[in-house]
Specification:
This protein has 77 residues and is mainly α. It has one domain. It is 53% helix and 8% strand. It is built from three helices and two strands; from the N terminus they run ββααα. Strand 1 and strand 2 form a beta hairpin. Helix 1 runs antiparallel to helix 2. It is elongated.
């Protein structure tokens, strides 16, 4: 279960290791900053921005829904 319900709050189980979180933050910083890749197709630019925001959120939360879905847990790495 990715969420545990306690009396006071909902706790999300972390499944990302320190290096994975750092790399996701760097990717988000790059893709949301002025040096982000730019394409002629607006859809690709929006897709890059969305992936950047997801990577940024996951780097702070320490949890990835794809890792949870595939049963990957590299928190201790």
């Amino acid at each position: 279960m990715i969420y545990q319900v306690n009396a006071e709050k909902i706790v999300m189980n972390q499944n990302l290791g320190k290096l994975d979180r750092i790399l996701r933050f760097i990717l988000a910083f790059w893709w949301l900053g002025p040096l982000a890749p730019s394409f002629e197709t607006a859809f690709l630019n929006v897709l890059i921005a969305v992936i950047g925001w997801i990577a940024l959120a996951e780097s702070f939360l320490g949890a990835c829904w794809l890792h949870r879905w595939f049963g990957i847990d590299n928190k201790n790495q």
